[in-house]
Every structure is written in structure tokens, then in C-alpha cells.
Design goal:
A 6-stranded mixed beta sheet has the order 12-14-15-16-17-13, with helices on one face. The chain is an alpha+beta fold. It has helices spanning about 1-25, 70-75, 105, 270-285, 300-310, 335-340, 360-370, 380-395, 470-480, and strands spanning about 30, 40, 65, 80-85, 90-100, 110-115, 120-130, 140-145, 155-165, 170, 175-185, 190, 195-200, 210-215, 220-230, 235-245, 250-260, 420-425, 445-455, 485-489. The chain starts with a helix and ends with a strand. A hairpin with a 6-residue loop joins strand 16 (about 235-245) and strand 17 (about 250-260). It is built from 9 helices and 20 strands. The longest helix is centred in the first third of the chain and has 24 residues, at about 1-25.
Length: about 500
Amino acid sequence: MLRIRVSALLLCFILLMGVTAVGAADSGVNLTRLAGVTLSTNVPELGGHGLGLINDGAYDSSVGGFATRTDVLQTTPWPHYIDIDFGENIVQAATMSLHAFYASGMAVTDLDLAYWIDGGWRNVREGLTFRWTTMTGDKAETRSAFINSRYTTTKIRIIIKGANLAGGDYRIDELEIFGKVTGTLERNVASAPGAVFALRKAGDNASLPKSAAVVYSTGVSGMEEVAWEEADFSVPGTKTISGTLVNYPEVRLKTHTAVWQPDAAYTDLQDDLLRKSVTLLAQEGLFWDGGTLFRPNAPLTRLELAQMLYAAKKAVPLYADFYDDIDAEHFYYGVIGAVANANLAEIFAGERFDAETPVTGAEFGAAFGIAEAADATAAITRGAAAIALTRSIYGDISNQTLKVFRDNGKAVQNPDMGFMIYYYDCSTVSYDSKLDSTDLLEDIPGTNTVYLRFPWCHIEPEEGVFNWSFIDTQIQRFAQAGKSVMLGV
């Protein structure tokens, strides 16, 4: 009877051991290595030992972990935080493991765990203590602990309260949290870019941005693909192009584009000096007019001056509120913001921008650093502004012949600059040595140098016997096409 009872007791013990073993082994997936997991900390990092290395799976590399600086306790007193954000995943944790090299000298010893619940941190496990025994850089020592798995969360905070500090710093070479994903947060786009501005030259082939930065309802930032309406940038003028996010078609985007024409053929420029002045400034994009009329006698407005300053200074849009009468819906919101922020024109001080208000000669002169610009107190006309600005940039052009050079779209063939092709590279069958004899690389603009690198034995196959045709043929072939040749022996 005693033997039966003992056997039964042993059987129960074995069964219990089996359940415990299965429970530990079947603890779920490694939550720290889920797609989209991000890590953050309040601890200054040691160069070369980044925070992102603690969940990279490098269990056997002593340079694959996270370490503090030696002065960390002075710069960041305990506790130290490592926050693990699981993105859209809702997780339920079961166990946690720490791996550390030089463990008895540098490993974490005391910590708490907190979950992000109902918009705040709640401690779910306190007073976890790890005792370490090894001090080696050959193999990481591992310590594990069960976690309170009653709760689900999207973020877990490791609260470090103590560590072995034999060398003045501590390390975590791998951090693992095992458990399961119980669901995902519903994700919508919480915010997307407002209307953006771009200044383009007529005929510009630059495409609209393929994606836009957004913030999701989960608080995570990301990029989303954009589907834009058809856009024609060949005709000067202003246009607004709309688009939608491919995955969230209810979210609409807008881009404002001003297209300027460098070769504008204005029909109302009869005066030779005025025509030259407007032609030069139009080439620089300082006038964004569409159509055939320049209107030289019309007063220059504050908005037109802002446009000129924006183009002349090659500014970038700034989307910020500076004036009561200019908001994010205004076509030139980004342009006006850039000019106001950079203090490019002191005349734009005040609470209102008043875009259509005429600019005086003194204000125009102050904006561009011109001593005198027509009548200082009266409104300056567009024509007078063009002549004054041209004179300040180019000097007196009244007796000069105007010749405008335009980009022909071809690559510039600079001597010893551009693209180079390896024709031979030690082996005469390497790289492009199999090109057809008529192929002179004209289909690759800017390719102006051919590099022949070869062993001397191709030139002198026998002592005193030279085969110069080996390189002469190729040198002549490419030299006649206007390309340089470099030799490497």
C-alpha cells in the first residue's frame, strides 16, 4: 500500500513537472521582435552600443547590446526606463529574459515592469531581482522571470532600479519578452500634411511626391502612398492639384503650384531697357506671370514682392501663422511664411499682410538692399521695380546686347569629370570589353572617360615582343569619339 501511495505521489509530481515545463516552453512569440516594435529610453547611450541592439537576436555577440555611459548615474539618476512600443499590436506578456555578458560585473539586478493602460503607466510587477554569477565575454548569461499576464497592453516599460556597476556602467545584451498578440488597434490617419507649395519652371518634368508623412490614430508616424490628379506643368500659371491617400481615400491632400515661364514673351514691353530687364529677371523666376501681358505700369503689390524675394533667396516654404489675414488655405501660405520668418523684408511687419497693398520705392529698395528705387514715397510700378533690380544685379545694361543662354538638356562634358567606364579591368573579358565596336557609350550622357587597366603581359607577351595594338585600337576608337582614356598597368 505504501509503495502504491509513493508511486501515485511520484506520478503526480511528474505530471506537475510536465505541466510546468510545457508552460515555460510554450510561452508564445518573442514580442520584442514583432514588426513595428520601437524602443526608447531616458538613458544616454554609449557610442556603438545602441538601444536597438537589445532586440536584434545577437545572443552570442558581446558587441551586440546596449550599454550606459560610465557617468550615467550622475546624468540620469535611477530609475532608468526602457520603453517597448508594440505599435498597433495589443499584447499579453508571459515571461521576460535578460541576456548579459560580463554579467556579475555589468548586468541589471533590480527592476519593475509597467504597462500602458488607459492612457497611463501602471506597475504590474515590482521587485524583480536577478542574481548573476559569471564574468565572461565568451557566452552570455541568461536570467528569466514570469510577468503578470492578466493585463493586455500596447507598451511595456522596463524600470531599471539597480545594476552591477563594477566598471561604472551596466549592459543589456538581449531583452526578450514572450507572450501572445491578442489583437490590433484600429488604425486611421489622425493627421496628414496640409496644402503644400511648390515653385516650378514651365515644362518641369519633376513628379509630385509619391508618398506623404502622416500620423495615425495609434500615435505612430508613417508614410502613405498618394494618388494625385493629372498635373500639367507645361503652361505657366497657378494651379492646385488634389490627391488622396491610396489606403485611406477619405483623406485628401492638396498641393499649390506656381509655374513660371523663363521665356515669357510679353507683348507690352516696348521699351528696350524694360524688355531686357524683365527678360533677365524672368530667367531667374522672379516673375511668376502667366499669359502675354506683363503690365509694367501696374503697382507692385506686397504679394508680388514676397514672390520675388522668395525666388531670389531660393527660400523653402514655411507653413506657419504670421498674419491674421493669411491662413493655411491661402495659396501662398508657405511663401509668405518663409519670407516673414527669414525677415527678408522688414516692410512685412504687423498683424496683417495686406497682399494687394502697393509697395513704395523705399520699401522695395529696403527689401533688396537698393539705395534708390524710383520715388521713395510713391508706389513703385512693376516695370520700375524690374529696371531697378536688374541694375543692382547686372549694372547698366542699356547699351548692352542681351543674349540669353538656355539649358539644352544635355550633360556637360567636363574634362576628367563625369562618368567613367571600366573597359578592361585586369581581365580583358571583364566589364564592357565585349561592347560592339560601334558602341561609343553615347546613350549614357556624361560618360567621357574610358579606363583600361591590364597586366603588362598583354603588352609584352614575350621578352622584347610588344603588342601595342592591344591598347592602341581602343584608344583610337574612343579618342575619335572625343573621350579621354586612362591607363592602369
